[in-house]
Amino acid sequence: MHIEQHILDKANEWMTATFDQETQQEIEKMMTSAPKELEDSFYKNLEFGTGGMRGIMGVGTNRINKYTLGKNTQGISNYLKKCFPGEELKVVIAYDCRHNSNTLAKIVADVFSANGIKVYLFSDLRPTPELSFALKYLKCHVGIVLTASHNPPEYNGYKVYWQDGGQIVPPQDAEIIQEIEDLNYTDINFKANDTLIQFIDKEIDDAFVTSTIENASFNTPKEAKENLKIVYTSLHGTSIKAIPAVLTKAGYTDLNIVKEQEVPDGNFPTVQSPNPEEPEALTMALALADKIGGDIVVGTDPDSDRLGVAVRDNDGKMILLNGNQTMVIMTAYLLEQWKRAGKLTGNEFIGSTIVSTPMMLDLASAYEVECKVGLTGFKWIAKFIKDFPNQKFIGGGEESFGFMVGDAVRDKDAVAATLLVCEIAAQAKAAGSSLYKELQNLYLDYGFYKEHLISITKKGMDGANEIKQMMVDLRENPMATINGQRVICIEDYQSSKGKDFMNNETFDISIPKSNVLIYYLEDGSKICARPSGTEPKIKFYFSVNTPLESIAKYDETEELLNQKIQNIITEMKLNN
């Protein structure tokens, strides 16, 4: 095949003495026997998305390797010196169970230290939320975690956190990216100053466990805790370093760990995908729960920021909750606890995202607190906490199985969320209820909301173009009706404009620009389309709702909502 000249030029740059011999040999091999792979490795520079930089490991500008991460780190080092002149600069680095994560973390530490920056480096893998906590605990300027979250084994990634413990947001993200792009690979200083690198572990672990218990436990009686039979799996990831310690110290004695998935392993050998959003990932945990009569199943992704939860329905059958359901259960519980403690003054808020369930707005309204809604990604919820220091953050989440309890950790936190959901389950069981019944009661009070997500994968350069075209079509040829319901409003977060078709008015959107499109239908249904910022996918989010007249009509109402979602999917030709 013909390789375009600009790709050859970039590849040839990597054949110079700046790059090690192994890298050069790999490129030479691709040039002669894998031109398509060469093209995919160099056709663009790996970019920062919603969750930092994530990509396939390998050589090239579009891959995760020592040079792309070295360049990031050199750029951040330069940026820190501009932002904090004369200060002793400090960073903290964590990494997960993925292949090369420990090696890449050390390379990142080397570059920071080579630039005269003090580095705290975890001595072994740790959960991402512990990195956010450690950043504030150690009063660092920046935190880095090497992780690709729940992506397949060939991926790795690089998340950047700022002083407040949240991931970088505007204007810092653009300024850092510009600093990185202004560099040549020859500018990277890889010569470590080992005297500036300090390994950390137990002190931070103990402080993190203590903080988590303070934030996410709510006076559950000792007997109720001991009576909850928990099944837990780390899916070969990092949460094994924190969740058992937190639950045990909090008083939960009946913790049953899925042994086959307990050991951290970047191959994730027992699952197709280490993603608790995928039902298949929790198969082994569900089997163990059925075997021992477990009350609740919790599974976390490799870097321990997402959690999947399964509970028993009214017939005693284990069912998986989706991220929206766990989010409303936890948020409603927190709001009720704050109300009972007399802590609701009208100056509190909960957080959510534009692709998550609108039920969060109903909960906020009922408790007379604000629901701040941002773009996808917890960095925006963390930004609300930073931007509104006079308001108290209660908790919040997004549909992608993430939740944040309070502000000690400024990112989605499966460690605290696991403890919180166990507290709710234990108290419900002790009161003769269950998590499932608590959810049904919320639907009775606020309306039955049903959400569904479709992810369409389109890999490589061709796939990126297909995704681009799908968004163009949705913008330039908008649907007027869907499933017999008029489209009453369209919000385009890329142009920061919305159109209200009922009043024939346009309006401005104040949320930062993002490639997201939302359709609102006259029956309260909501459809959102957005390309993923970290994976080669386009995602469609559906939300429908209707009043729930009684628990007796639960199954019938759920089936009606499921059918409505399927009709929308069929009409939008998204079945394949």
UniProtKB/TrEMBL annotation:
- Give the Gene3D superfamilies listed for this entry: Alpha-D-Glucose-1,6-Bisphosphate, subunit A, domain 3, Alpha-D-phosphohexomutase, C-terminal domain
Signal peptide location? none
InterPro entries to which the protein is assigned, alphabetical: A-D-PHexomutase_a/b/a-I, A-D-PHexomutase_a/b/a-I/II/III, A-D-PHexomutase_a/b/a-II, A-D-PHexomutase_a/b/a-III, A-D-PHexomutase_C_sf, A-D-PHexomutase_CS, Alpha-D-phosphohexomutase_SF
List GO molecular-function terms, semicolon-separated.
magnesium ion binding; phosphopentomutase activity
Q: EC number(s) for this protein?
A: 5.4.2.-
Q: What biological process terms from GO does the record include?
A: carbohydrate metabolic process; purine ribonucleoside salvage
Where is the Alpha-D-phosphohexomutase alpha/beta/alpha domain positioned along the sequence? Answer: 47-182, 215-316, 322-441
Its needed co-factors are: Mg(2+)
State the UniProt keywords alphabetically: Isomerase, Magnesium, Metal-binding, Phosphoprotein
Q: Which family does it belong to?
A: Belongs to the phosphohexose mutase family.
Recorded hits in PANTHER family, A to Z, give: PHOSPHOGLUCOMUTASE 2B-RELATED (PTHR45745:SF1), PHOSPHOMANNOMUTASE 45A (PTHR45745)
Protein name as it appears in the record: Phosphoglucomutase/phosphomannomutase family protein
